[in-house]
Amino acid sequence: MFRIWAKVLCEEHIEKQTVYESGEKFTYSNFFRYLSDICGELDIPTPVLLKSHVFNYAKFNHVNFMPRDFMEQISFDKLILENIL
Predict the structure, then answer these.
(1) Predicted confidence band of residue 85 (pLDDT cuts 50, 70, 90)
(2) Which of 11, 32, 80, 81 is deepest in the core (most CB within 10 A)?
């Protein structure tokens, strides 16, 4: 089981947030599915997932998605995913 806290920030204030929980074992090969489920729940576009994003999440237990990581225009400053230990 794992939990991911997702926050949408606009001008350093949390606009939306959710906690994604799953009973299955966490695998990095399914990280895009987790990200896509989180974005669907927050009603925001899904960003492009790069290898560097996965490495940052693995090494630092969090990852930041900036506006340059989205293919669509977004109305917020960043999306942050944090592993809840």
Answers:
(1) confident
(2) 81
Per the DSSP assignment, residues forming a β-bridge with 22 are 2
Distance CA 14, CA 7 (A): 6
pTM for the full model? 0.92
Which residue type sits at 69? D
CB atoms within 10 A of CB 8: 22
- Give the integer Cα–Cα distance in Å for 80 and 45: 14
pLDDT in tens, 75-84: 999 999 999 9
Assess contact for 9 and 23: CB atoms under 8 A: no
Q: Which strand ranges, in their side-by-side order, compose the sheet holding 62-65?
A: 13-22, 2-10, 78-84, 62-65
Q: In this structure, how many other beta carbons lie within 10 angstroms of the beta carbon of residue 23?
A: 6
The position carrying tokens 């074992």 is 25
